Amino acid sequence: MSERDRGGDGVDLTRRSLLQTAGAAAVATSLGGCLSGDESPAAGPNVDEETAYGTCWMCHHACGQKLTVRDGTAVDITGVDGHPRGSAGPGTEGTLCPKGQAELEKLYDPDRITQPYIREDGELREADWDEAFEYTARRLEEFADEHGSEKMLDAASWSTTNVHSYFWGNLYGTPERIGRGRHVCHGGSHVSGDLMGIGTSDIRFVDYQHSDYIIMWGRNVFEAFAGQWEAKQLLDAIDDGATLVTIDPQHTQTAEKADYWLPIEPRTDGALALAMGHVILEEELHDEEFIEEQTYGFDSYREAVEDKTPEWAAEITGIDADLIREIAIGFAEAAPAAGIAMWTGVGQYSEAQKASQNIFALHGLVGNIDRPGGLRMWQPPAMSLNPFAERGIDLPNNAADKTPALRKYDEYAGIPARHLSGIVHDLVPEMVDNGHIMGMFNHYDNPLNDGSTQAWLEAVETMDLVITIDAYWNDLTRNADVVFPEAIQLEKDTLINYAPLWSAYNDRTWVTASKAVHEPMGECKSGYQIYKGIAEEMGWGEYFPWENEAEYSDDMLANIDYSFEEVAAENYVLLDEYGYEQWEDRGFPTATGRFQFDLDQEHEYLQAAMEAGIETGPQWQPPGTWGHETDEEYPLHLYDTRSVFFTFSADQVLDHLTEQYARKHGLEAEDYRGNYLAINPADAEPRDIETGDMVTVETPTGSGELMAYVSERTRPGFATAEFGFGTGTGHEEGTNTMMLHDGQFDPISSQVDRHMPGEVRKNGGD
Ligand SMILES: Nc1nc2c(c(=O)[nH]1)N[C@H]1C(S)=C(S)[C@@H](COP(=O)(O)OP(=O)(O)OC[C@H]3O[C@@H](n4cnc5c(=O)[nH]c(N)nc54)[C@H](O)[C@@H]3O)O[C@H]1N2
Ligand SMILES: Nc1nc2c(c(=O)[nH]1)N[C@H]1C(S)=C(S)[C@@H](COP(=O)(O)OP(=O)(O)OC[C@H]3O[C@@H](n4cnc5c(=O)[nH]c(N)nc54)[C@H](O)[C@@H]3O)O[C@H]1N2
Ligand code: SF4
Ligand SMILES: [Mo]
């Protein structure tokens, strides 16, 4: 296992082969009709050809795009060299991953919604913009009169403009919001990282360039990267001799490249981390000075790991005790040039808050925080996220005196998460039943994908008012009262709506922007124009003085003395330099100003911990403390995963991507284009299941049909399927794994728990 095998399946993974599984030419071919139609003349000497930039928004990580536009038609798309997110750093090639390349297919996709719709006499019908704005404003006013605006749920997600939060919070006045990080993405580690002083997820990235020892702890970075820079720099690091460890029940594409694969028993990460800490202290490999000067609560840590020997953890995790020792020593000896990358793998189970706390404690123990090769504390550029304030607009805060329902009503008094979270995704259907949530606003978001889908489907039908800004039809948009068609990133001026952090430049702040490359299709408008239109009808025109996104962006950039035009002309600009060990001057952003092993200083957490009956310091919580366990009837452990071809449920609608996904599994000859259930041969054989068979997967609360993919990729007993397919999504083929979900969530963070016990049988069998 410790033998380095970097060939994986005979495929030599390189920067290009990993990220560019299909060239732009292949994408252009797949666009077929679009590009050879009447308006797309063949290239020739008289053809008017331009180069333009884009800011890829296919997975919202903003890699730079360079486009060739011929007589108004975008014909080629590629990366931008040296781009902070799309390259490996200065002087290196910029590329696009398969999703990024597919944005051209999305631009010309005939299935996109390109017209506003409103509900009349129970049916959705096409409307013009004036009608749609007027109708929306009237319904919003009626909703506020009848229910109170606090019963409107803001579920906006990947909008390129942050104006939605000002619209729904400050102006309409709702305190109810489902955010991505804490509620549906990685709630457990969001809470721990925040309270320990290393950020929610913003700085959860290793300083790959200088690292000698990298642990991918429940992360599959070669399929799910946060911008291509991450996968590219990891490849460079291992080429330069860094040790790569993956801790994952799946033998992922990342495990294929690793020196060590630890096929951990799911949900036992907390035990492994405590045992690693035990070894590091026993071997005296901890950083005494850092602990003394920069941390809080070390005594509770020492006490917690005292009896957590590798032999103890081996029983629980299924990982050999000697291997645990080897990894712990390897990591600590390489520190501070050693880092742990973590995101959803230790984020999406009910015991994840404590498990991630135990893992993050290892950073404090070896003192690798904000030191070269360790866990970098990324800095944002000094851009303003509040253009209203920049303009001197006196924006009211109409949500300020409203308490979220979770904290207001007795029905939720038993839920510890209410202290730390405004909402629980999986409780929304119940809140709708209780009349505490009566409407919802969505923008580039589909909650039917995220958990408890069956209950959510009913909730959406019960709600009094559902408004969406989307690009495709699915069970959410079809059930909405208003559907606004949004221009995609290539059709609008784009400055990302948050201050960008992690990138290939580990010592520079930066921004990236691009101008519209193409006219919006049909009647599509940008998100900003949609909010402005509704606001004007609501009588809030004074708060929207900017004509368009570019003007709004100018105010976001004013602080750094750039205009939107100037950044867009370059695609990206590098700004201030910053150094390591920033805690030296600033301390850590915690109640004690130190890195916190123990979270007893945080009042809200203390309340939640007391109610949940857990400790504030590091602690071992066995699987099943809150989540489910497998049993005789449901012996398989089910989990959903990501593929490099898809972002959540957003782009399974693009045929070129589902085609590549089928090809990667060797199943392109089948008619089926849904997701696959990956299952180990040891589990498949007794069930008579072979690759390509249709199977039914069942949990105590639901079932679905999909195609089997028998593979050593998953450890025995663990079966996975990519999410974002099936009922509720825009690509109905396959199974929405969350249709099998029963509402289990982490009682501390409120994060959806996506581990489920299940059984699988071959269709047509017994
Ligand atoms: N089952 C399962 N669910 C998960 C996860 C998981 O691991 N398993 N992971 C979670 C994580 S980590 C996160 S961060 C969340 C994010 O998940 P969400 O925020 O829910 O995002 P998506 O599912 O991508 O939302 C897709 C919606 O955007 C629409 N859309 C596509 N293109 C456009 C466009 O150009 N403009 C507009 N306006 N709309 C568009 C689609 O039609 C669809 O309605 O998902 C979570 N959901
Ligand atoms: N292509 C693509 N890229 C993306 C996204 C996308 O949807 N598609 N989404 C983006 C977003 S918002 C996010 S949050 C990130 C997520 O990035 P990652 O967290 O790297 O996402 P996954 O690929 O789901 O990897 C999670 C891994 O955890 C493993 N795992 C499951 N259970 C356990 C467990 O109990 N313990 C351990 N140790 N491991 C476990 C799974 O087998 C899986 O390999 O990706 C980002 N990048
Ligand atoms: S990683 Fe891929 S999909 Fe995501 S922004 Fe970059 S090119 Fe686009
Ligand atoms: Mo996420």
Name of the CATH architecture of the largest domain: 3-Layer(aba) Sandwich
Question: Which distinct ligands sit in these coordinates?
Answer: ligand MGD, iron/sulfur cluster, molybdenum atom
Largest sheet: 6 strands, mixed
> In order across it, which strands form the biggest sheet?
5-4-14-13-12-6
Q: Number of domains in the coordinates?
A: 4
CATH topology type of the largest domain: Rossmann fold
Strand content: 15-25%
Pfam families: Molybdop_Fe4S4, Molybdopterin, Molydop_binding
Organism: Halobiforma nitratireducens JCM 10879
Family: Belongs to the prokaryotic molybdopterin-containing oxidoreductase family.
GO molecular function, one term: oxidoreductase activity
Structural topology:
Layout: H1 15-19, H2 24-31, H3 33-36, E1 49-55, E2 64-70, E3 73-79, H4 98-101, H5 103-107, E4 117-120, E5 123-126, H6 129-146, E6 152-154, H7 163-172, H8 180-185, H9 187-196, E7 213-217, H10 228-239, E8 243-247, H11 253-256, E9 260-262, H12 269-282, H13 288-294, E10 295-296, H14 298-305, H15 310-317, H16 321-334, E11 338-342, H17 352-366, H18 387-390, H19 405-408, H20 428-433, E12 439-443, H21 453-462, E13 465-470, E14 482-485, E15 494-495, E16 508-514, H22 527-537, H23 549-557, H24 564-570, E17 572-577, H25 583-586, E18 595-596, H26 603-612, E19 636-641, H27 655-664, E20 676-679, H28 681-684, E21 694-699, E22 702-710, E23 718-722, E24 756-762
Parallel strand pairs: 6-12, 7-8, 7-11, 8-9, 10-18, 12-13, 13-14, 19-23, 20-22
Antiparallel strand pairs: 1-2, 2-3, 4-5, 4-14, 15-16, 16-17, 19-24, 20-23, 21-22, 21-24
Helix pairs in contact: 6-22, 9-17, 12-15, 12-16, 12-17, 15-16
The structure holds ligand MGD (2 copies), iron/sulfur cluster and molybdenum atom (MO).
One ligand MGD is lined by residues 157-158, 180, 184-185, 344, 443-447, 449-450, 469-472, 474, 476, 486, 488, 640, 647-650, 723, 730, 737-738, 754.
InterPro entries: Asp_de-COase-like_dom_sf, MoPterin_dinucl-bd_dom, Mopterin_OxRdtase, Mopterin_OxRdtase_4Fe-4S_dom, Prok_Mopterin_Oxidored, TAT_signal
Protein name: Molybdopterin oxidoreductase
Keywords: Iron, Iron-sulfur, Metal-binding, Oxidoreductase, Signal
